[in-house]
Design goal:
The complex is a heterodimer of chains A (about 270) and B (about 240). Chain A is α/β, with parallel strands linked by helices and about 270 residues long. Chain A has eight helices and nine strands. Chain A is globular and about 55 Å long. Chain B contains ten helices and no strands. In chain B, helix 6 runs antiparallel to helix 8 and helix 8 runs parallel beside helix 9. In chain B, about 35% of the residues are buried. The chains are: A alpha/beta (about 270), B mainly alpha (about 240). At the A-B interface, strand 5, helix 3 and helix 5 of A face helix 7 and helix 8 of B. The complex binds adenosine-5'-triphosphate and magnesium ion (MG).
């Protein structure tokens, strides 16, 4: 892989994604778990797709299958154009930083694996740390950072590899409301500049609507796609204009869809209304 | 402290045999005399040389094979029965065999010490690699780490705490065997000095040498602890996940 001093320069492959009848069953002595049941959807190049669903419905599993970290029980993940294997970068739900590496080395990890020279990869890592507001923590170890900061480091580690497909597993979960808003904006800016395909998992319906071109709603386990909604908001998005009527209406529809599964996953009685 | 004073008084009052339990002051005087005359320094030099040669040889081998066994289940399947069979043998019991194989010179002593140092590092390094959790492997693999980089950036630092524990066990076991081998078959070294002192009933010299062995053990362990602080500056958190 050729090194490139300017992170803005390597254009993403026009990667599109098709998930076809994907099924995943975890087998163990304590009983099998059907995590995903015939999940199908497609995402076109440059799209920002959000995925919401109740806890345990297989969202993380779906991302792992797409990243090739798990093998599906049945079904396929197909990338187009088929000729090149796209660069995939995932932000794991638990950050997954290496505690023995400094922040800057954590961020540069993927670049180092590609054989990029130390000075070059350091510069690129520092630039992304700058953009995620963590420049002054470059020399720290992960344990010296808060949970939300660790999550931002994980985001920087993914972005610095200039992926064609970016998989985000609840990356802003641990952030306070203000930082979260800023990070959402920052992510949108970075994505608009790069226009790679993004799959964004969240449990926050509003976040899904605000960020996504499209929202996929999943059922409780075994996870299935219940519905797909196009988000009618224009780009670039103004995240502070949040009280649009359409958003409220979408939010309500998604919640109505999710409510039974959410209730049953908590073993609550069905609502009266 | 009180025990030392009691010992001193009892020895002076002839309540205990000063031949077998000489007064601490007499031991210290002998210690000082042996130090000045250089015999303790020379003996310590021999012991340290054997110890470090054996440690380096056996330790390095244990480390490399341990990494291999931790990494590859094929290597583990191959080596585990051998380890299970040889490891529990008291290594000193192998001395005659080693003497036959390597002659009566330094070589056989170092081989025996190396054999002793080999197993704790092998076993701990293997365990160190094996306890790396699936998620760490997953993240490393996802970001493209393989081969040398995977070893240097992930496997090695992840298993280092257990490796260092293994190094400490190796060191202490090797020190024991070094002195024992010298007792049994050497002309020089701390173990040999003890044996000679005992045979000529110069018990003060025996005690003085024991002090040196204790010091060697303490100091080398101290060095290892320092090394550990140097190599692992971070505080370890098993879960560095985002749940704040
Ligand atoms: N490695 C695994 N082995 C066995 N079962 C697993 C494994 N990973 C996930 N599962 C099971 O698969 C199901 C889906 O898990 P997954 O982590 O994908 O859910 P999720 O939608 O990401 O949940 P959350 O929103 O809580 O993160 C769960 O029931 C879980 O127990
Ligand atoms: Mg999850």
């Amino acid at each position: 892989m050729a090194s490139n001093a300017d992170p803005g320069k390597v254009a993403p492959l026009r990667t599109a994604l098709r998930v076809d009848q994907l099924m995943k069953r975890f087998v163990s002595q304590r009983g099998d778990v059907l995590a995903l049941d015939r999940v199908s959807f497609a995402a076109s190049a440059g799209e920002f797709v959000c995925l919401v669903g109740p806890s345990g419905c297989g969202k993380s599993t779906l991302l792992r299958l797409i990243a090739g970290l798990l093998a599906p029980t049945a079904g396929n993940v197909v990338f187009t154009p088929g000729q090149a294997q796209p660069q995939i970068a995932m932000v794991f739900q638990d950050a997954g930083l290496f505690p023995w590496l400094r922040v800057v080395d954590n961020v540069a990890f993927g670049l180092e694996a590609r054989g990029m020279a130390p000075a070059v990869r350091r510069n690129e890592a520092l630039e992304l740390l700058q953009r995620t507001g963590l420049a002054e923590f470059a020399g720290h170890y992960p344990y010296e950072l808060s949970g939300g900061m660790q999550q931002r480091v994980a985001l920087a580690r993914a972005l610095v590899t200039q992926p064609d497909l970016l998989l985000l597993d609840e990356p802003f979960r641990a952030l306070d409301a203000q930082t979260r808003l800023l990070m959402q904006e920052q992510l949108l800016r970075l994505w608009e500049a790069r226009a790679c395909l993004v799959l964004f998992v969240t449990h926050d319906i509003e976040e899904a609507i605000l960020l996504g071109d499209r929202v996929l709603v999943m059922s409780g386990r075994p996870g299935q796609i219940l519905m797909e909604l196009d988000v009618p908001l224009s780009r670039p998005r103004d995240l502070s204009g949040r009280s649009h009527v359409e958003i409220e209406e979408m939010r309500w529809r998604i919640w109505k869809m999710l409510e039974p599964a959410a209730r049953s996953s908590l073993a609550l009685p069905p609502s009266e209304a | 402290m009180a025990a030392l004073v009691a010992w001193e008084l009892a020895a002076r009052a002839d309540m205990i045999s000063p031949l077998f339990f000489p007064a601490p002051s007499a031991i210290l005087a002998t210690f000082w005399r042996m130090l000045i005359r250089g015999e303790l320094v020379v003996a310590t030099g021999y012991t340290l040389a054997r110890l470090s040669a054996g440690l380096l040889l056996g330790g390095a081998l244990g480390l490399v094979l341990g990494l291999l066994m931790g990494w590859s289940s094929a290597a583990r399947a191959l080596a585990e029965p051998v380890v299970a069979a040889v490891h529990p043998l008291p290594k000193l019991a192998l001395l005659p065999l080693v003497l036959i194989l390597f002659g009566i010179g330094e070589q056989s002593k170092v081989v025996l010490i190396a054999l002793t140092a080999f197993f704790p590092l092998l076993i701990n390094t293997t365990a160190g690699v094996r306890q790396i959790d699936a998620h760490t492997w997953e993240v490393a693999r996802h970001y493209g780490a393989r081969g040398w980089m995977l070893l240097r950036r992930v496997v090695w630092p992840a298993s280092l705490p257990l490796v260092l524990t293994g190094a400490q066990l190796s060191l202490n076991a090797a020190l024991v065997v070094t002195v024992a081998v010298e007792l049994l078959s050497a002309q020089q070294g701390l173990g040999a000095t003890i044996w000679l002192a005992w045979q000529t009933l110069r018990t003060e010299e025996m005690y003085a040498t024991l002090i040196v062995i204790a010091l060697v053990g303490m100091l080398s362990n101290l060095v290892l602890v320092r090394l550990e602080h140097r190599l692992i500056p971070r505080k370890r958190k098993d879960e560095s996940d985002g749940r704040a």
